[in-house]
Amino acid sequence: MEKKDKKNSGEKNFIKIDYEQIDVADIMDQIKRKIAQEAKKPSPGKPPKEESPLTPPHFFKEPEIEEEALGTKKKARKLLLKLMKPFAPLIKFMVLPVHEELMETIRKLHQTNERLDFMNVRLQQRGDEISSSLNDLINRVGEFNTAVHERIDELSRVLSSRINQDFEKTNKRIDKTNKTINKRLEVLFADLGKTMEYTKLLHNLSHNMVVEFSKLKIEEENLKNKTRIMEKDFEFLGRREKALEKLILK
Amino acid sequence: MKIAFVVQRYGIEINGGAELHCRWVVEHMKKYCEVEVLTTRAFDYITWKNHYPKGKEVINNIPVRRFSVTRTRNPERFGRLQNYILENEHREEDELKWLEEEGPLSPSLIRFIKEHQNDYDYFIFFSYRYYHSYWGIQTVPHKSILVPTAEHDPVIHLKIFKNLFRKPQAFIYNSFEERKMINTLSQNDHILGDVVGVGTEISSHYSKEQFRQKYKIKGDYIIYIGRIDENKGCHQLFDYFLRFKKDTASDIKLVLVGNAILEIPSHPDVIYLGFVSEEDKFRGLDGAVLLVMPSFYESLSMVTLEAWALRKPVLANSQCEVLKGQCLRSNGGLFYENYQEFKETLRVILSLPEFRQVMGQNGQKYFKKNYTWEVIENKYLAIIDQLERKK
């Protein structure tokens, strides 16, 4: 644990904590920010997969000169330079050093050429790798795209078939309901027609009855009048009878 | 005053979830009023098979009436029905069928409530999603108080529950997140309710060394306590923890306490202890660097509160809104959404002992303010008092 604490001590700085008043929300924000920042950085821990282009390739080799031979050559060169020191200015113009330098330069040029060739080859290889991985990626994206499209199509098909089924079911139910309603309406209309006829008949009947009642009323009045006249006649006849009786008795 | 506590299972052996929550509340409320527990004979929460004897018994001085379960649950049939109602258009009758399958199907319990409703002043129902709560509340809505213990579970969106949440006289929620979820679902803001939760009692002295010796644990460890199950996010915890070990070369260990339903990865730093005694649990918690809670759904994590009571910081799964909300409110824990966040948060907590200590202290303050039994009892009494005044 202690070991771990020490190891993590460098990371403590990324979080600012007020120990007097800890705010978990703020600490979580800091942690989320740190994670987001780390996600943006390329991961340093991963070793490069390929060799550096500047690393000499296995096919490039320094010229192999045996150490012993190299020593003898140096000694001979030193001795020769000592002997020729008086003639140094002249020798400087002579062919040997110029030739050596020339050879050295050619050798370096050759090496450089070879390194350039190697870098070229590496670049080509890297380019091929990148293009092949890009192709892979494009293919995978394409495949994924196709799969997604297929899935969407499938889902759309399933969904539309279910919607259609539901529509059909609903339509059937609506048709059935319509039929039932129509039948019931027809019955109702027929009943209504009958009721209307009955109402008309009743209306006529009422009218006729009113007329008959009116006639009867008039007749009743006539009869009443006749009765009154007859009563008066009876009254008159009664009085006449009494008068006649008085005359007879006298 | 006489209060009936209605819960799906009840017993000393039942040591988790809403049932334990109910038992603790009943045992504490006994001081203030006459209490009685109405429950089923079930012990197994998967099949609800009758296990306890029928009738009345006394557990820790609490009278308990047990009613028979008339039909055991067939998990396969239940799963099929649940999938059907969650994935298809369905009618309310289908939901009621689902509720019957969910169980524990005990019509005699509901009949008892109906026939003896005048013997009790209030019925406190635990766990909204079971048969006893739904039909119990329908039977005595005017005397009902519901402790929903709801999680972000898809079944909470069923129509029957939307209506159910408008029936009780009061709600006792476990968390602010639960209250918000239920209010949003059923627009029942007008019903009396308070966020209460459950208290816990912890002795201040536990010998962590005894725990280490008993289980032969050396070095620092983080601890998970609970059912080791995919539903509790344990598969993700194993994956994240092993990746963390690989990426950071940390020597931290993961100690697992609880019954395992999931296969535990074979790794020297993943130590599985199985089911342990309460004392050992607290000892283990006290000796841990932190408590990790990978669960996606929790209405109230008791073990999280216990960790805070013991001044231990918590590392929780932020997909569980309740745990995340509690970490934010208490400032006693961090949370993660993915592996990167798990790695960073765990690394920060492990590398900063002072941070751990302050978070633990914050957690303990939060616990003392909200979850001691005195606070919980007062909240229950306040709700009952408000209901009495309404009468």
Briefly summarize what is shown.
By secondary structure, chain A is mainly alpha-helical. Chain A has helices spanning 2-8, 24-40, 67-83, 88-93, 95-249. Chain A has a domain at 1-43.
Could you walk me through the main structural features you see in this protein, from its secondary elements to its overall organization?
The complex is a heterodimer of chains A (250) and B (391). By secondary structure, chain A is an all-alpha fold. Chain A has a domain at 1-43. Chain A has 5 helices and no strands. Chain A is rod-shaped, with a radius of gyration of 66 Å. By secondary structure, chain B is of the alpha/beta class. Chain B folds into 2 domains: 2-199 and 372-390, Glycogen Phosphorylase B (Rossmann fold, 3-Layer(aba) Sandwich); 208-370, Rossmann fold, CATH 3.40.50.2000. Chain B has 15 helices and 14 strands. Chain B has helices at 17-29, 75-87, 92-102, 107-115, 131-139, 159-164, 176-186, 208-215, 234-248, 278-287, 302-309, 321-330, 339-351, 353-370, 373-390, and strands at 2-6, 34-40, 55-59, 62-67, 122-126, 144-147, 170-173, 192-195, 221-225, 253-257, 270-274, 290-293, 314-317, 333-336. Chain B has an 8-stranded mixed beta sheet, sandwiched between helices. Chain B is globular. The interface between A and B is medium-sized, with 24 and 29 residues.
